Amino acid sequence: MGRLRTRPGRLASIAMAAAALVLALCFASTAFAQLAIDDSLLTIDLGGKVYGENCDPCHGNISQTDNYASEIIFQHAYHQLIACSSCHSRFPHRPEGTERPTMAGCFNCHGLTHGPTGELATGKCEDCHRTRRERLRPVFHTYDWEKKPHVEPGTKELQTKCMMCHDADWCIDCHEVTFIEWEPEGAYAYDSDGGCLACHGDENLVKASAGRPKSYQVIGVQESAHGDLSCQKCHQDYKYEEGATLTPLWNVNAGLACRECHVEAVGFDEEFTAVSQAAVTEFDKSTHAAALNRWIQGEFKAGTADKGQPPTCADCHGGHYIQRTDTAYAQQVMHGSAYRVCARCHQEEYASYDDYYHGAAYKRGASDAPACWECHGDHLILPAADEASMVSEKNMAGTCGSENCHGTGSKEAFAANAGDLIHRKIEAAEANPLRRFLRSVGNWF
Amino acid sequence: MSVIDLTQLNVWLDVIFTAVYGFMLVALPLHFLGNVLTGRAKRRFVGWEWPHHDGPPIPFLPKFLHFQHVASMILLALSGLYIRFPNIMGGLWENARTHMRWVHYVAMIVVVINLVWRLWYAFGSARRDYKEFALTKQDIVTAPKVILYYIFVKSSKPHLGKYNVMQKGTYIAFAPLLIIQAVTGFALLTQDFIFGYSPRDILVGWWLGALVGSTDLAGWYMRITHYVVNWLFIIFTTIHVYLSLSEDFPAFLNFFGLSFLDREHVQTDDHDTHDEGPELVAIR
Asked: What is the C-alpha separation between A114 and A112, in angstroms, rounded?
């Protein structure tokens, strides 16, 4: 009887153990499948025409592909997450031999001052080259280089080829000695053009920032007004040179980089040059610029009388997706952007902008209702207490009476009376005793 | 310089008129409840007993113009309120201010044409009916009785003609109010299309503007007047619609060309006294 009783129990135990094992295996495989790295998500692809599946028959395990350029500190194994096409822009096995990627191709990712590629291999020659720097001279660099016609490459390639190896001193030292004046059109800096998008074009580029996931993907550049500029034009911190930036704060530097183009106005027409230069000059006099300077110097205290982070150009005009301002659509977009531009810092003021014909209409999309800057000014924004402010007591009548608004019908009397309504209607309504009484009756019901 | 705080004035007007209108929207159903409790509603809507009307039937044109006027007034009220309170429809009508202005302009033109026609009809046409609106001594004397009837104290009211004293008073007020509304509305236009001057310049700029210190400030007073009169129209029209529905539904149907919905009604008489009323000009 005892055997009869125990046998089914033992069988059941074995069956349960087996079932548990199967279940554990199922869970483990499922979990493993979820944990497995999806190469397609992590692979960086610069968009060439060499497809991995064509390479796989021979280079299935890329780490076993030799480095044929022994003078370069390079391993294919380090680049397992990089699509073949990112470096090999075309099929590399040519009749004349294997085509190696160009150094400019490497510079798409390396030489950065941030990120893993920048840390592993910066723009310094010795990070990648075993050969001594002095011996890395390209064949077209002859010893009598200075006598060769190098002006043209110096003009055209200063920011592409030259600055991969050289820095400004190479040019300046020689020119100072020879007394030949030379002023490059652009900065002495290597410009990787769109290379940043190798990583920042990836929608999966997400990292933890301040305890929250944050996307570092960059979108909208191609469609923006700056679609034809390289990233380093604005992100000067990521130029391949040190000490090129105005402040240690990258976002401020990016915001302030605008002035480099908009003051020099290279390639701008006469009208846009005047507009650009005036904008920069006015901004420098504004309360925003003053706050920005105090912020850079560590004297700005957000949350007190100071609002949030003081704005740079990009905070108002947009960063990567910055719009042109010379089309009707762009002006419409700009006109409707007061919430994004101003209210992020000036929330109370934006909330109080709710009178009948200005604020409330503006917030409902009325194209003829003024945006904040149409009264307060755009670049030259000053406190109302400042006499030069567009909304100072002295200038109010003129501001209300601008050509596209009230015109000559506006005078001091009008501005003093009707102007008060613009930001004070909500406050007056909230304080109205009859309204409060009716509300309390309504609440009672 | 103006001594009036425009912000406070505007807010007070908003609060007062919305409160009055809200009160009215509560009061009218309560009034109809009074009709139910006193049996008037049963007599009218079940027994289909409605007041009879003296005089010839109303021709098509006045009916059509009345319909057109009602439609225009509704459009004017809706578009006008939207222009002043862009949030009135929540997110339903975004960026509609320009469209609403055009609706307002068109409806305003229709109403002005209607007004001119109605004044001509009242005073210049063959059917001139201005006498029907004339307030007589009898009207004034019997006014308390009419009011007592409407507040259910009395069960009948004196009959002095086509319209009772309250109707006459309201309709008489409509004409000057419409003129005020047209003038103040026109004074809000700042486009200088009249020989380089705007309607605002011409109507108020030169005198009121000089008085208060600015043409646009004068425009603000026009705007406030326009807003007040707008509320008067909304309130009067709402009461007018309610009374036409509850007191004389067949006439309401008749005015909108819906008489086919009016089953043969028994004409009874709530009037306790009768007056011959003004002599009507024969139909030609």
From this structure: 5
Burial of A333 (0-12, 13-18, 19+ CB in 10 A): middle
The answer to whether B220 faces chain A, any CB pair under 8 Å, is: yes
pTM reported for the whole predicted model: 0.72
Q: Is the torsion defined by CA of B123, B127, B133, B134 positive or negative?
A: positive
Mutation target vs A (from B217, B221, B223, B230; most A CBs, 10 A cutoff) = B217
The end-to-end CA distance of chain B, in Å, is 58
Interatomic CA distance for residues A382 and A387, integer angstroms = 9
Residue of A nearest to B15 (CA): A435
Q: Which of B84, B86, B217 sits opposite A417 (nearest CB)?
A: B217
Radius of gyration for the alpha carbons in chain A, expressed in angstroms and rounded: 32
Q: How many CA atoms lie within 13 A of A221 on its CB side?
A: 17
Measured at the CA of A149, the angle between CA A145 and CA A151, to 5 degrees, comes to: 100
Asked whether the beta carbons of residue B14 and residue A429 sit closer than 8 angstroms, the reply is yes
List the Cα angle B229/B238/B156 in 5-degree steps.
120
Interface contact flag, B7 A414, Cβ < 8 Å: no
- Helix (H/G/I), strand (E/B), else coil: A142: coil
Q: Read off the pLDDT of residues A313-350 as tens digits, 9 standing for 90 and up.
A: 888 888 888 887 778 888 888 899 999 889 988 899 99
Contact of B49 with B247, CB cutoff 8 Å:
no
Q: To the nearest 10°, the Cα dihedral for B186, B190, B194, B200?
A: 50
pLDDT 10s digits, A195-228: 788 778 888 888 888 888 888 888 888 888 888 8
Q: What is the ipTM of this complex?
A: 0.81
Size of interface A-B (CB pairs under 8 A): 105
User: By the 8 A CB rule, do B188 and B104 touch?
Assistant: no
Continuous H helices in A265-377: 270-285, 287-296, 313-317, 328-335, 338, 347-352, 359-363, 372-376
Backbone angles phi, psi at A217, to 5 degrees: -70, 140
Cβ pair A420:B15 closer than 8 A: no
